[in-house]
## 1
Amino acid sequence: MATKLKRKSFFIDERELEAARRALGVETDAETVRAALREITRMKALARFMDKTRGSLPSGSFSP
């Protein structure tokens, strides 16, 4: 599936952008925004999975 890109123009806090860049380990503004969007989508999917499976594993079946 081909990626569809769309140009956007908006204001963003440069300190937050730089903090996100460091946290995500990317180099450009565009990479930072794309990686942050992927990460929040991944986190939401994980939260849905956790909600869905809460209480379905027997106690002690998972140990870190």
## 2
Amino acid sequence: MEEIREIGVPEINVLVNLPEVAIPAAPPVTLQIGVPVIDMPAFDPLDFEPEGQAPRVIAPKPKPVEPPKVQPPKITLPQPEKPVIEAVEEEATLIEQVINALPSIPQTTTVAASSVIGVTAGLCTPFLLKLVRPLIKKAAQKLQKALGRQPVPKGVSARRALQRSLRG
């Protein structure tokens, strides 16, 4: 039997030997490259003495502004050659108004055909998915076998068996 060792905390050395930081006396770059490329003009601020007062600045008087005269452009409209005669509409009976409001036969057939196609597509989608999905799965499994890959296991027990076989 092995002996149980005692629990002990090792001592922590408080003093750590840190390297001394050496600060250079001169900057590391001491090259004289030359004159600056951009010649900036000097800025000479106004010299105000506390005893003296600054000269008064008088603002210039603005010139009176004259509004420009706006002249509308001259437009000449062509005169109609013949007087326009307004057509007088006769009031149609209720039956004529209903007949005029009904769509034509080509319009009716187009709308009916598109609605029939939409409804049948909406109703057939779940049925088509139930038919097509298994076919696609079988085709994918055959393709994976042809490529030399292992097919995905179908159940929990098959997946566990595959994982156990991979462990060695």
## 3
Amino acid sequence: MKLTRNRFLTARGFGVHSPWAYNFIVDVLGEKHPYYAYEDLYDFWQSAPQQLPQLNEKADQMLFRIVNHLLPLTIVEIGTGAGVTAGYLASVSTDIDVISIDSNHPFTEAVKQNLSIFGNVSYQVGNQMELLRAVLKENNGKTLFHIAHTAHYADICELLLQNAVPDTAIVVQGLNNTLIYKWWANIIKDDRVGETYETKTTGILLFDKKKYKQHYRI
């Protein structure tokens, strides 16, 4: 697997020979122009339970662009946190079903109430692994999995790797955490994974083996 190391150059497309990867890096991950939905989501972000974890605004906006580019049929998020990211994911298109899986905590009703404005979001609370297994049994379409605010990222990702198909995408948060990054550094070498991308906080795993296995750091 070839490793593209220079974040500055890669983010501008230098040395990226694959047209698909170039477009994904420059026009999706690095896109700077605002979408109308960003402004519409500002009030939603303010109303989210501030006691719970959430991504920064740039990370949520990048996820919005990734979904807008890949257009999965279903999005499964594990680790809802404050629910802001689920709102961003659901705002791309009402035709995309978003399932956000959370653990039990004192603020689940507040998250549920906040997410109720999105008709395409299903908020599920309980044992994350059990809920994910149930979702995987029913899921057979083009799916993006978002591993967000969860301590079980390694077990969850392994389960997803076992069930991945060519049009699966997995997005992992928390690469700025040393332990998560050490785990991530091994995941990108896994033969089950195709192209991989990473920013300072977010990792993306793709599974189309027709594309050359390469890792890009942006």
